[in-house]
Amino acid sequence: MNQLLLPLLLMLVVAIPLVMGTRKQKKAAAAQQELLSSLAPGDRVMTTSGLYASVADASADTTIDLEIAPGVVTTWLRQAVREKVEPVVETDEDIVDDEVVVEEPAIEAKDEERVEEKTGAQIAPPLEHGKK
């Protein structure tokens, strides 16, 4: 009896992870198939190559038309679609002002002396705005 126990335990140690891995793969394949069958025009998707696009036509069985830019529609295999993504919503925070303020660094007295020594020119003191 003891001679059969060790081989039986070894088979269980090997068989259990194999069965669990197979189940996980089947669930992932079923989820991917459900995603591919549920695609409809207007859905935002990402392909396996990382391309973001909108579904333009999903009526064919093996192919799908994706709009990658306004007016640019390409045909892909359905299996190339990796996942659905949320549509991009532009918020007020995404809009950046065109005006950029650049502050000039203050020049210290030591720096002024070095510039005078090297070039012989004097540096004018910074202008103060708002004071009369």
Explain how this protein is built.
This protein has 132 residues and is α+β, with helices and mostly antiparallel strands. 36% of the residues lie in helices and 20% in strands. The chain has 2 helices and 5 strands. It has helices at residues 2-37, 109-119, and strands at 44-47, 52-57, 63-69, 72-77, 81-84. A 5-stranded antiparallel β-sheet has the order 4-3-2-1-5, covered by helices on one side. The model has no long low-confidence stretch (mean pLDDT 81).
Secondary structure elements and their pairing?
Layout (H helix, E strand, L loop, with lengths): L1 H36 L6 E4 L4 E6 L5 E7 L2 E6 L3 E4 L24 H11 L13
Antiparallel strand pairs: 1-2, 1-5, 2-3, 3-4
What would the principal axes of the Cα set say about the shape?
Answer: elongated
Query: Could you give the order of strands across the largest sheet?
Result: 4-3-2-1-5
Helix/strand/pairing category: alpha+beta
Number of helices: 2
Unreliably modeled segments: none
Strand runs, count: 5
> What letter string, H or E per element, gives the SSE order?
HEEEEEH
Task: Give the key terms.
single chain, 132 residues, alpha+beta, five-stranded antiparallel β-sheet, 2 helices, 36% helix
Report a brief summary of the structure.
The protein has helices spanning 2-37, 109-119; strands at 44-47, 52-57, 63-69, 72-77, 81-84.
